[in-house]
UniProtKB/TrEMBL annotation:
InterPro entries: Enolase-like_C_sf (IPR036849), Enolase-like_N (IPR029017), Enolase_C-like (IPR029065), L-lyxonate_dehydratase (IPR034619), L-Rhamnon_dehydrat (IPR023444), Mandelate_racemase_C (IPR013342), Mandelate_racemase_N_dom (IPR013341), RHMD-like (IPR046945). It comes from Noviherbaspirillum humi. Its cofactor is Mg(2+). It is an enzyme of class 4 (lyase). GO terms for molecular function: L-rhamnonate dehydratase activity; magnesium ion binding. Homooctamer; tetramer of dimers. Belongs to the mandelate racemase/muconate lactonizing enzyme family. RhamD subfamily. GO terms for biological process: carbohydrate catabolic process. This is L-rhamnonate dehydratase.
Amino acid sequence: MKIKSIRARVYQWKGPTVPPQANFCSNAIDLVYDNQANRHAGGNDTMNTFRFHEWTVVEVETDDGIVGLGNVALAPRIAKAIIDQYLAPLVLGQDPWDYEYINQRMYRATHAWGRKGVGMAAISAVDIAIWDILGKAANKPVFKLLGGRTKEKIPCYYSKLYRTDLKEMQAEAEKFVKQGFRAFKMRFGYGPAHGQQGVTENLKSVEAVREVIGYDNDLMLECYMGWNLEYAKRILPKLEKYQPRWLEEPVIADDIDGYAELNQLTSIPISGGEHEFSLYGFKQLLDKKAVSVVQYDTNRVGGITMAHKINALCEAYSVPVIPHAGQMHNYHLTMSSLNCPMSEYFPIFDVEVGNELFYYIFAGEPEADNGFLQLDDNTPGLGLSLRTDQLHNFEIIE
Ligand SMILES: O=C(O)[C@H](O)[C@H](O)[C@@H](O)CO
Ligand SMILES: [Mg+2]
């Protein structure tokens, strides 16, 4: 079996979106004076830099007609250009079973500029598509090729609860407690730029959500890199009484020493990794005890080939892996690793941040049932296909 063609297309969402709201989620650009994101929306839209309203879909086809699907959401148009110009020539004509060789080829050929960020994300999409091919060729789900089923079903946590009116947040949490979720991730709306008033607002939001979900359910707290070390050190001790399962990405991804300091500071475990790349990036986080939960995303770190190695590495450090974002490429790895206790789950909503866009592109993504996800033992590959009924909402860049 040989790889015959590679097609990368950008799916740009043109359908309806939920309008942006102020202080919806802290993020890295919040610390920059008069940031571009704010100017775009007359001072309100602090989320401009992290919307995922376009996505690159990669189809890798073999000479015997098997098509594997992969995808990448980081800088999708640049990822497409990288795939078309740099990766396709390295992969065409190769046997997909040589996935380790192909992965190394892509990683090393682009190493001068590609080792972190969009270069790795582009590699990831191709690698994921190759694993989809392998599953289809072997007539097995990908998780069976990675070691098989380690759980009857995958527990998942509800991931939305952006900062809005506190009553609205409570109603949202209540609705999904009733749907059987036992773990919830909420977002902070405020950071260092908002002073002590913002600290009070942040604490009030945690209290409001805890009031609804109680202490028999897990609560995760997301900063999306919108704080700095000094601010995080001030607020962390005040958050302890709410017993969060973890506090996520308090500072920018490059401040590894900051993570390490915060991870030792209180009883609250610090999580991160959705903006880290490659086996070496994670070894650095683990060696420094910077995170207590690793949250790689398979479509960023270098694909399933690389994520499988990161799983093994984290297992040896006894640090659990709970990948970022859900999606099939992550679920198959979580199903096949005992060190992955649960999955993140984006509920299916109207398009807002864009976290939910993959549901509009692919058919086959599992829906949570009573707080659990299931993968089918009899569906080969990743179990995804491209939806045609939503195409009118997309512009496709070939
Ligand atoms: O952990 C997450 O789910 C991410 O940080 C989200 O993708 C991001 O959009 C913030 O909501
Ligand atoms: Mg996150």
